[in-house]
Amino acid sequence: MEFKITTEYIELIKLLKVLGIAETGGHAKAIVDEGEVKYNGVVDLRKRLKVRPGDIIEVGDETIKVI
Fold this sequence. Notes:
By secondary structure, the protein is α+β, with helices and mostly antiparallel strands.
């Protein structure tokens, strides 16, 4: 799936909430804490990670390309 941002970046936990992958901010933080998120192919535990166009986020079976 592709996700277009209109700003310089979006924080990882906000992205997870906007896409409906996480139901709440707490759920988004838990997903990240449990190592379920890959940022450009590498597990990343930073909740406030600044995701920019060109980045690829993987959560479970979902792959999100940020444009």
